[in-house]
Each structure stands twice: as C-alpha cells, then as structure tokens.
Design a protein that fits this description.
This protein is of the alpha+beta class and 456 residues long. Among the domains are: 154 residues, no CATH class; 149 residues, Heat Shock Protein 90 (2-Layer Sandwich), CATH 3.30.565. Helix content is 64%, strand content 10%. It contains 14 helices and seven strands. The strands form two sheets. Strands 2-4-5-7-6 form a five-stranded mixed β-sheet, with helices on one face. It has a two-stranded antiparallel ribbon with strand order 1-3. The protein is rod-shaped and about 145 Å long. The relative contact order is 0.05.
Length: 456
C-alpha cells in the first residue's frame, strides 16, 4: 500500500475541493489552478495576520477593516471552484488587491506609501491568471492612480512626507522584504510555468514522433500489402482472362460436334436421346455465356479505353438500340431526363448502362410491362445516377449479395443469367472512383444508384 506524503494529501484535497474539474485534463491548467488557490490562501492569511496585528498593537490607528477582504477572498475561491474561469478570477483578484491598497494609501503616506508599491501586484496578477490585455489595463489604472496621488501631494496643505517620519526602520524592513518575496515569487511562478510548458511540449513532441514512427511503419506495411494485393489481383484477372478465353475454343468445338452428331443421327434418335442432346447443347450455351461474362468482368481492369468527354445521352441511345429486340419482346419502356457529358471511358459506361437496363428487364413482373426510369443529379460534388424499375424487387436481407460475383438469388428455371452482370457494374464504378448501391422493396421495384466524382 502506497503511503502519501502530507504535501500530496494537501494537493489532492485542493484538487478535489477547490479546483474546477476542467483543469484536471491539462497539467498546465492544473498547476495554474493550484497557484491561484495557494494565492487565495496566502492573501487570506496575510489579511488575517494584519487584522490581528492592527487589533492588538494599533487599536487606535485608523486602519481599514480587513474582515470584508477576507470574506471576499473566500468568495473568490468558491467562484473559481464553480466557474473555473481564470480570466474572471484573475481580474477579480486584481480588483480586490487594488481596492484594499487604495484604502490604505491615503492614510499611510500617500505618494510615499509602500502600499502604493504593493498595488503593482494588481497588473501582475491579471497577467499571471487573466491575460495580457487585462494586465495592461490594470497597469494603466495603476499609473492613473499614482498620478492622482501625486496631484494630491502637490496640492496638500501638509506633505504626506511628514507621515513617513513617524515610521521606524523595522517597518521598512518588513515592507521591502515582503515586496522582494512577492516580486521574486511571481517571477518564479512565470519561470515554473514556462518550464512546465516546455516540458509538456517536449513530451508532446516525443509522443508525436513515436506516433509518426508507428504511422510510418503501418504505412510501409500497408504499401507492401497493397502491392501484394495488386499483384495477386492482377494474377487473378490474368487467370480469369486466360481461362475464359482458352476454354471458349474447346467449348465451341464441343457445341459444333454435338450439332453435327445430332444432324447426322437425326433419323435414328429417339425422344430420350434427343432430350439428352438438348441438355448438352443447352449446357454448352450456358457455359459459353458464363465464359463471355467472365471474360468481360476480367477485362474491366485491363481495358485501355482512355477517359474522354462522353455524352451519356448518346451512350443511352446506343444501349437502347442494342437492346431493342429484347425491349420489343417484353414491351419495355425506358424514360430518362437529360444526362450530362462527363470524362469517362465510353465503352465502360455503355457496358454499365446495358447491364443495369438488362437486369431491370429480366427481373420484371409477369403481369406488368417493365418500365425503367433513369434520373441524374449533381449533388455535393458527385454525379449521381438512379436506374429505377417496377420489377419484382429484392428482399432486404439479400441486397448486399447482388453485387457478389456468381451470386444468384433465383434459380435458372426462373431467370436466366450467370450472376456476373452486377459484379461487373460494381467493378466498373469502383475503378472510376465511385460507389454503387441498391434500394428495393419486394413487389414494388428496385433502384440501382451509383455516384461518380464531379472531377469526371
């Protein structure tokens, strides 16, 4: 068990009961608050000592009462604990000191009074606890009051200097010693505060250097990981490209020979054999479509189509022509507002538009003609596009899956497809520095939205 020293116990008591909680987060403010509290205690003890001295040794002297001053000091301590405002407390403390000494100066030698010298504590206290502007203001007040006392001395019937003759050497010994201690103490407080600030800055600098070193180390690790990931992705893209490209040739050969066999043996095939041949042909067709989509997906990151000013109205017109036969089959309707001209690879945008519109036509309602609304807006530095349809919709718990490659939410018997189209859309948008998302309600329709930076 750790045994606390009396000083530590005293500081803990002061921190808990006399210092505002806002000072606890900063060692500099905590030290400053402690100094202010100690100054309150010191002034209270000094006032109490002078009150006892005046009462016992100078009962007949016309000295001002120090009891109000002691009560005010207690009030200032409570105010600092309540508000924690150094500017307010510093200026009030300077005001108290100034008013107390201002009462004593005229009755203790006027312009020659040591109390006038003690008044210099007012601007020093304001500088120490409030701010520079307050310190200068109190200095101006002190100079003005000193000038006023000089005026009083010049126009007095009896010079204030006559009062100094009654003071003995011990009085000046106490006065000058107290002034020396206070001035040097305040300078020491400033010096200690400066040392504390330098120490805090050095600690902060060391902490920042340590954090910067850690950040640099993590940045190097991230760069290495990114390089490895990039190389890995490139290898995967090359593999997907090579696999899909190289597999199409033997697949095409299988399809060709199946058709030749079917034509050659057409008269000798029974119904079961014809069905088997159909299964093979259908499998070859689906495999060819899958390899074609996979090839397109792998080409997204490999295409060298440079970004150029692309009129998306013209892109949409080309896509509609490409899908015209499919639109007629399904009585589909496409509506669009004015689309912008942006700097993007035109082929990628054509592929993106075609995939999204095809997807909306594919997942239509059986009893309602498909309608695709294309809307555009420029908001918060981004081009935003919305492809809204009136199809079957997507369940809320399935929305994150639709952009995964080879992900299918429905069986092939219900809807044809390979599960690569929307993954290709996502890859196109991300390669262009944008973002794609989906909003949907089952039975109402789906909105595929994507954004691209306005720099495009």
């Amino acid at each position: 068990m750790q045994i606390l020293s009396p000083l530590t116990k005293a500081l803990n008591f002061i921190d808990r009961w006399l210092i505002h909680e806002s000072c606890m987060d900063s060692p500099i403010l905590l030290r400053k608050g402690r100094v202010l509290v100690f100054l309150h205690l010191f002034l209270f003890l000094i006032s109490f000592s002078f009150h006892i001295s005046n009462t016992l040794f100078y009962p007949d002297a016309e000295n001002p009462s120090l009891i109000p001053a002691m009560l005010i000091i207690v009030g200032l301590s409570v105010l600092f604990k309540w508000k924690g405002n150094f500017t307010l407390s510093g200026n009030l403390l300077a005001l108290l000191f100034f008013l107390v000494q201002m009462q004593a100066v005229p009755t203790s030698c006027g312009i020659y009074s040591d109390n006038l010298i003690w008044m210099m504590a007012a601007p020093l206290l304001a500088l120490l606890f409030a701010n520079v502007r307050s310190g200068i203001a109190w200095l101006v007040v002190l100079l003005g009051y000193t000038g006023y006392m000089y005026y009083e001395e010049v126009n007095a019937a009896v010079s204030y200097r006559e009062q100094t003759k009654e003071l003995d050497a011990a009085y000046y010994l106490i006065t000058w010693s107290g002034l020396f201690i206070i001035v040097v103490g305040i300078v020491l407080i400033f010096a200690e505060g400066q040392n504390l600030i330098v120490k805090a800055l050095n600690e902060k600098k060391a902490e920042l250097e340590k954090k910067n070193e850690e950040i640099s180390r993590q940045a190097r690790w991230l760069r290495e990981a990114q390089a490895k990931l990039k190389a890995s992705n490139k290898e995967l893209e090359q593999f997907a490209y090579a696999a899909s490209h190289d597999l199409k040739e033997p697949l095409r050969m299988i399809g060709t020979y199946v058709q030749l066999i079917e034509r050659k043996l057409n008269d000798r095939l029974d119904e079961s054999s014809r069905q088997y041949m159909h299964f093979v042909t259908d499998g070859v067709t689906r495999m060819d479509r899958l390899l074609t989509d996979l090839l397109e997906y792998s080409r997204v990151g490999r295409k060298t189509d440079m970004a150029k000013d692309t009129n998306l109205n013209e892109t949409l017109f080309v896509v509609v022509n490409n899908l015209m036969s499919r639109m007629k089959e399904n009585d589909a309707e496409i509506c669009a507002n004015e689309l912008p001209v942006i700097k993007v690879p035109s082929m990628l945008m054509m592929q993106l538009f075609q995939n999204l519109i095809s997807n909306s036509i594919k997942f239509r309602k059986q009893d309602e003609k498909p309608v695709v609304e294309i809307q555009y807006e420029n908001r918060q530095g981004y081009h935003r596009f919305y492809f809204k349809d009136n199809g079957i919709g997507i369940p809320a718990d399935q929305k994150e899956r639709v952009f995964n490659i080879f992900e299918r939410l429905h069986g092939r018997q219900e809807y044809e497809g390979t599960g690569i189209g929307l993954a290709t859309c996502k890859k196109i948008i991300e390669n262009l520095g944008g973002e794609i998302w989906v909003e949907s309600e089952v039975g109402v329709g789906t909105t595929f939205a994507f954004s691209l930076p306005s720099d495009n």
